């Protein structure tokens, strides 16, 4: 048995300093050369223990950290993507995670996204509060430990930093985590450490690296044991075409050994792909996989943990996030991979919305989040949104409008599907932040429910009361026409009216005020009203109060769903109507056992 380096994933919101942090450790300038200063592709970097000792010096010795851990293996991610696409059987590939937060900006959408993912995979993590140099009045001390630098700051600056740290403590508490500034942590197994740093000046990097090593040594030693002679297990970072090499896969090997010429098994969307390795290419230590200045070195074998590039035939359809297994006579890796394929297959419902994602891992993450929200899923697949997806979602929309939805994470809409999508009425929620997409979907569902509730409320017959004005009966019958005043609620054309005894009076045929025909009138309005079926002097007299005759079903809906939407006079009228109805039927409006 051998102890491998722990795999550390760096997560956080765009521009909060993920790559800059690793640049300081590597002594490289990857961040400066990237488009817009933002990580564009997944990368992985090995930091050997010798380099860590140079960075941390005596600090590690003071913490009694032994040299049992051979180093740290960092995965740099565009926000969160590698974390969801990088998976191994039973969870995420990362052993530890760094959640990097701009101490001045606090939590942002992708911060919450990262926390959701960390919860999902139950991954231990450290919070790095970056950009302390931007706190007003902070004096930079290049390469110093946080504690050394902090002691040399003015008291007002120290207080400001602590306030910002406690803002993060509060946010983490809201997410279900106990946390504290690292030097005040009492129990590292139950509290999240917050380490303030400046990735540019290197302040606090010493404590961060030491903390990662300490946590790995204390809690992960068993997890980091590998069989260095066993056939390799790994996961695919990216599949891409390289000039002169053809289609290649960037992979992380987390167990065993992989050799030039090995037969390997991977996965496309639905099937196993078996192929033979032509060559293994490996970046040199401290060289970043996607940006190696010295390119790659061809090697005969690699032992975990390592980031490698593989060239082989038939890699075109392999998906990011696919497991990678070396096939051997001793182990039935093919059967294991088939079992994993079965496990990855997403359980779907007979009805629900449609999910598309870029990798197996991100598909799992999106589905997991939606399932937690009790949202049914009819289909969940890898790949861009196709014409077929739009047609299927359109059919689902006809059955239930809330299921005519496509959640598209980190994928595009196929050009041939764009026109169909715009004409279909299917709702598309697309983006590269799972947290944001699901929030937008929830907001849309809520808006729809509110609109539906409003429409429903408008169709419900609500309580209203009117009075027959004295000396204003213009016609006795066919229809009876008289002057009325609305005493409560809103009266509409077509409503049935009853008297104070609950007897049917007639139906409102029309209402008119100064020659204008009205379809609805409200409290305080006086109009001439024509009432079909009614005979003045028989069904009502001058000065009588008449009530809108509410159907029992409408009363129950009002009582259960919309009572809080009634104003004071409608409330009073509703109570009067209930009393009148119960003169003839004492159980009118009561809820039965199964209602």
TrEMBL record:
Chain segments annotated as transmembrane: none
Locate the Tr-type G domain: which residues? 3-220
* Superkingdom as given in the UniProt entry: Archaea
Gene Ontology molecular functions: GTP binding; GTPase activity; translation initiation factor activity
Q: Which UniProt keywords are given for this protein, alphabetically ordered?
A: GTP-binding, Initiation factor, Nucleotide-binding, Protein biosynthesis
Q: Where does GTP bind?
A: 12-19, 76-80, 130-133
| Gene Ontology CC, one term | cytoplasm
Q: Which InterPro entries match?
A: EFTU-type (IPR029459), P-loop_NTPase (IPR027417), Small_GTP-bd (IPR005225), T_Tr_GTP-bd_dom (IPR000795), TF_aIF-2_arc (IPR004544), TIF_IF2 (IPR015760), TIF_IF2_dom3 (IPR023115), TIF_IF2_dom3_sf (IPR036925)
The protein's matches in Pfam families, at most eight in alphabetical order, are given as: GTP_EFTU (PF00009), GTP_EFTU_D4 (PF14578), IF-2 (PF11987)
Stored SUPFAM superfamilies: Initiation factor IF2/eIF5b, domain 3, P-loop containing nucleoside triphosphate hydrolases, Translation proteins
User: PANTHER family, alphabetically?
Assistant: EUKARYOTIC TRANSLATION INITIATION FACTOR 5B (PTHR43381:SF4), TRANSLATION INITIATION FACTOR IF-2-RELATED (PTHR43381)
**Which NCBIfam families does its entry note?**
aIF-2 (TIGR00491), PRK04004.1 (NF003078), PRK14845.1 (NF011418), small_GTP (TIGR00231)
Q: Which family does it belong to?
A: Belongs to the TRAFAC class translation factor GTPase superfamily. Classic translation factor GTPase family. IF-2 subfamily.
* Function, as annotated: Function in general translation initiation by promoting the binding of the formylmethionine-tRNA to ribosomes. Seems to function along with eIF-2.
The protein, known as: Probable translation initiation factor IF-2
Please give the organism: Methanobrevibacter olleyae
């Amino acid at each position: 048995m051998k102890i491998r380096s722990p795999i550390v994933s760096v997560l956080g919101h765009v521009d909060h300093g993920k790559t800059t942090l690793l640049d300081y450790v590597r002594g490289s300038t990857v961040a400066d050369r990237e488009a817009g200063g933002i990580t564009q592709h997944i990368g992985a970097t090995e930091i050997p223990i010798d380099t860590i000792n140079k960075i941390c010096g005596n600090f590690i010795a003071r913490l009694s950290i032994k040299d049992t851990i051979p180093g740290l293996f960092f995965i740099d991610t565009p926000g969160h993507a590698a974390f969801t696409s990088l998976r191994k059987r039973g969870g995420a590939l990362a052993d530890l995670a760094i959640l990097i937060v701009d101490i001045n900006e606090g939590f942002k959408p992708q911060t919450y996204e990262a926390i959701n993912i960390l919860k999902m995979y139950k991954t231990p993590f450290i919070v790095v509060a970056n950009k302390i140099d931007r706190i007003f009045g902070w004096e930079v001390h290049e390469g110093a430990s946080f504690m050394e630098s902090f002691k040399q700051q003015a008291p007002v600056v120290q207080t400001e930093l602590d306030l910002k740290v406690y803002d993060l403590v509060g946010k983490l508490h809201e997410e279900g985590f106990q946390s504290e500034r690292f030097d005040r942590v009492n129990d590292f197994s139950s509290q999240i450490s917050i380490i303030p740093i400046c990735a540019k000046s290197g302040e606090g990097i010493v404590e961060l690296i030491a903390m990662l090593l300490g946590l790995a040594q204390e809690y992960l030693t068993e997890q980091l044991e590998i069989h260095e002679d066993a056939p390799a297990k790994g996961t695919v970072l990216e599949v891409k075409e390289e000039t002169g090499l053809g289609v290649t896969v960037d992979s992380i090997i987390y167990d065993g050994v992989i050799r030039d010429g090995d037969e390997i098994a991977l996965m496309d969307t639905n099937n196993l792909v078996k192929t033979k390795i032509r060559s293994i290419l490996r970046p040199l230590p401290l060289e970043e996989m996607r940006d190696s200045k010295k390119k790659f070195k061809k090697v005969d074998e690699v032992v975990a943990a390592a980031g490698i590039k593989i060239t082989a035939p038939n890699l075109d359809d392999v998906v990011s996030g696919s497991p990678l297994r070396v096939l051997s006579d001793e182990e039935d890796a093919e059967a294991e991979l088939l079992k994993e394929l079965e496990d990855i297959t997403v359980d779907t419902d007979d009805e629900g919305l449609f999910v598309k994602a870029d990798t197996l891992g991100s598909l799992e993450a999106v589905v997991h989040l939606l399932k937690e929200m009790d949202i049914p899923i009819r289909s969940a697949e890898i790949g861009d949104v196709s014409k077929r997806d739009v047609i299927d979602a359109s059919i689902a929309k006809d059955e239930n409008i809330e299921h005519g939805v496509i959640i598209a994470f980190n994928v595009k809409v196929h050009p041939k599907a764009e026109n169909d999508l715009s004409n279909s009425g299917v709702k598309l929620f697309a983006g590269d932040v799972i947290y944001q997409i699901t929030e937008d979907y929830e907001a849309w569902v809520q808006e729809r429910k509110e609109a539906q509730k409003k429409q429903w409320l408008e169709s419900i017959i609500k309580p209203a009361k009117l009075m027959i004005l004295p000396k204003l009966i213009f016609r006795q019958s066919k229809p009876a026409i008289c002057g009325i005043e609305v005493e409560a609620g809103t009266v509409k054309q077509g409503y049935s009216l009853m008297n104070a005894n609950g007897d049917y009076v007639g139906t409102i045929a029309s209402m008119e005020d100064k020659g204008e025909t009205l379809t609805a009138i409200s409290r305080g309005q006086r109009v001439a009203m024509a009432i079909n079926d009614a005979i003045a002097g028989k069904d009502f007299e001058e000065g009588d109060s008449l009530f809108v005759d509410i159907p029992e079903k409408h009363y129950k809906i009002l009582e259960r769903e919309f009572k809080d939407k009634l104003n004071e006079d409608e409330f009073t009228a509703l109570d009067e109507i209930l009393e009148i109805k119960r003169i003839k039927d004492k159980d009118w409006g009561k809820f039965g056992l199964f209602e």
